[in-house]
Amino acid sequence: MNRRDSRHGFETRSAYPFARSPRRPLPSMSLSPQLHSPAFTQGFSAAGEFKLNDSTPHSSLMQFMTIRVISVFTVIVACALSCGFSILAANDEPLAGESPSEESSSKSGEKPDVRPDAEGFYGVPDAVIDDPDGYVNLRKDKSADSPIIAKVKKDEPFEYRCTQNATWCKVKLASGVTGWMHYSRIKCYYTEKDLPRGPEDSGEEIDEQTRKQGVNYYEVARAAARGDKKALRTFFTLGLDGAAEETHITSILPVVIHLVGDDALAEFLRNQPLNFQFTVRNKLDDNVTYPFRSLEYLQLHFPKTSKLFFRREIDFPSPDGHYTIHKVFSDEQPTEDSKVTRSQLIDKGTGKVIKDLTAEDEGRWLYREGDVEWAPDSKGFLYFGEGPIKPEAYQLSGKSFVKIEVPSLDHMPLSGCDPKLGNAYPGLEKIHWSKPGTLVCKKTCYYKSTDKSGTDHELRRTYEITMTIGPDGKLTTEEKPVENNEY
Predict the structure, then answer these.
(1) For 12-34, what is each residue's pLDDT tens digit?
(2) Could you tell me the residue ranges of all domains in the chain?
(3) What angle do helix axes 262-270 and 274-283 make, rounded to 10 degrees?
């Protein structure tokens, strides 16, 4: 569900209610605004006022009313004294329940609404500077020639408001001083408090989907934010969809990468396969760095990580180090027009090009790098130049590599399910090497049926497909069931 974040004047798809930049500030402990309103004051004054009508003609009624007033007054004084002693006794208690609205919010689990000031700031720091000089000038107006009204130092959190593609952003310091700062000097600021503690912060969808994968999302997110390598790998490879995926990418992923930092993130990614590196890069889009453009933001504030993400050339070396597949791109950045300009299988010992693969590579934009999976003995490789659906397989024959015809994942026999069990749709894993000369993939067929009572059932059958490359270069395919489940 879309929600409007008035802090930066943009819309985010996040379902995560605890988010900041694009995030809302954490709930304040101040009194509810309703308690300061004139309407509330006037209502309280009217309720506490008691007037007698001096023109009452009946003295007995007057006496009765006078007695009632004295009684009520006595009760009020007694209550006031009692409340006074209670307040004195509780004077050192926390202010969590100081206002009725806040107390009811706390009991219901809902967070009180936090309203911006007249300039649109919420009082929650969400940025720091990033400048080699260690400080940035805060200007009176949106111009480099404008008078300097303050110097913002490194690690000094402040609040900012900015629209997408804006050159200058409105900034408010902790001192209350407001001015303008160039967007390129602003880096988003997060603390561990911005991480979700449970489904009440991140939503039920993300909790349900990750638990089905055997993952405690909140523990993994916190461990990943501390730089734990195993947790980082789990965090970046979670299989999520719908609202859960949007929450993960737009609201929690930004917190984790900023808490990890450029140095630790680059070190972690450097030891991961190329395909993993580029998968992470593709997740860090404009939703993660809003209101800033992701490509520029990463290059400015994550320079070491950006060197891994944005390359003009990459290599896929064989396990034995004898060969490499060398790719060259038209641009360093994976822009929409970026493509593969050269892809070659090279003998690293001699530098000789064994095979030119350029014509077979259709990689574009964010998926231009594709993937290469070498056989364990380095005598074969799978070349993914058109995505994971249609790999090209090559096997060493003599001194050259010859192409092996591998069926596409969206064609028979890989996509076929048993028609006797009803209509079905298949789910297929990426083809990979299980051992030298043998390729495998798993296929899961989902069958749906309705019994006589009208209850829907789902039958899930998983098959392992083994493809063995013979001496003549032809594939022998075998399929066998490995798992049956009914729901």
Answers:
(1) 333 333 333 334 333 332 322 33
(2) 192-309, 313-404, 419-486
(3) 140
**Residue 161 near residue 200, CB atoms below 8 Å:** no
Give dist(CA 408, CA 399) in Å, integer.
27
Give the model confidence (pLDDT) of 150-208 as tens digits.
999 999 999 999 998 899 999 999 999 999 999 999 999 999 999 999 998 888 999 99
Q: Which regions of 105-235 does DSSP assign to beta strands (E)?
A: 127-129, 135-139, 148-153, 159-161, 168-172, 178-182, 186-188
- Candidates 191, 304, 332, 351; CA nearest to 258 is 191
Residue type, 133: D
Question: Tokens representing 443?
Answer: 């296929």
Instruction: Give the span between the Cα atoms of 316 and 307, in whole angstroms.
Output: 17
Count CB-CB contacts under 10 A for residue 323: 23
Q: Distance between CA atoms of 379 and 68, rounded to whole angstroms? A: 103
Which DSSP string corresponds to 303-326? HHHHHHHS-SEEEEE-TTSSEEEE
Give the bridge partners for 186, in sequence order: 129
Distance of CA 312 to the CA centre of its chain: 27
Looking up tokens 């605004």 gives: 33
What residue ranges in 236-377 does DSSP mark as E strands?
Answer: 313-317, 323-329, 340-347, 353-356, 371-374
CATH code of the domain occupying 419-486? 2.20.25
